Amino acid sequence: MFDIEPPSSKETLAPTLSRLHDEIVIYLEAMPTQQFVTPQGEAWSPAGHLRHLVKSVKAVAYGMGMPKLALALRFGVGFGGSRSFGEIRDVYLQAIDDGRARATGRYASSSEIPDGTTPEAWRASLLDRWVQAGEGLAKALGRWSEGALDRHRLPHPILGKMTVREMLFFTAYHNAHHARRIHERAEGVAD
């Protein structure tokens, strides 16, 4: 579930991101509301994971929406091309193993339902925000050329500066990683 055929080009990135987005919506819509809002042991609730993913995807889309000159001036340019999907996945997994991959600051999440909100309303709001975040990322990606994905960089709070292509590889893997954790914990397969 939530498997990824490693993307390499814009032509393969766009459908990979879209398919994962849709799979996550379908999976979470089918989950009972109480399970959606309840923490999974010591881990976030599925709602907490989704809230984190919304923040992450929106940040990437926002960065990709900035003028390319501003990105170049602020974060430099990439001249050596981009690492592969597998290399980005491995760097992220190493950061998890090293204990460096912790969501902090604006990317931290909470499993608490906002005051005055029902679990059902919170669920609907989060799923709607997830759909909007996916649409925003797809729109942003549509404005980028294949070459520009390797020339411009964005900052990652844990992994440092990455080309836009690398950031999209990370985003695809990160989304699938969190979705698999939700599924594994819901099925009692993981810690």
Oligomer: single chain
Q: Report how far apart the termini are.
A: 18 Å
Largest sheet properties: 2 strands, antiparallel
Structural class: mainly alpha
Count of individual beta strands: 2
Q: What does the overall shape look like?
A: globular
Helix content: 55-70%
User: So how many helices?
Assistant: 8
The overall pLDDT, averaged over residues, is: 92
Tell me the Rg in angstroms: 17 Å
Which residues sit in consecutive blocks of at least 5 with pLDDT less than 50?
A: none
SS strand fraction: under 5%
The strand line-up of the biggest sheet is 1-2
H-E string? HHHHHHHEEH
Q: What this model shows, in words?
A:
This protein is mainly α and 191 residues long. The protein has helices at 10-30, 33-37, 46-65, 68-75, 85-97, 119-142, 146-151, 164-186, and strands spanning 153-156, 160-163. Helix 1 (10-30) packs antiparallel against helix 6 (119-142). The chain is globular, with a radius of gyration of 17 Å. 32% of the residues are buried. The model has no long low-confidence stretch (mean pLDDT 92).
Detail the topology: elements first, then pairings.
Layout: H1 10-30, H2 33-37, H3 46-65, H4 68-75, H5 85-97, H6 119-142, H7 146-151, E1 153-156, E2 160-163, H8 164-186
Antiparallel strand pairs: 1-2
Helix pairs in contact: 1-6, 1-8, 3-6, 3-8, 5-8
In short, what is this structure?
With 191 residues, this protein is mainly alpha-helical. The chain contains eight helices and two strands, in the order αααααααββα. β1 and β2 (160-163) form a beta hairpin.
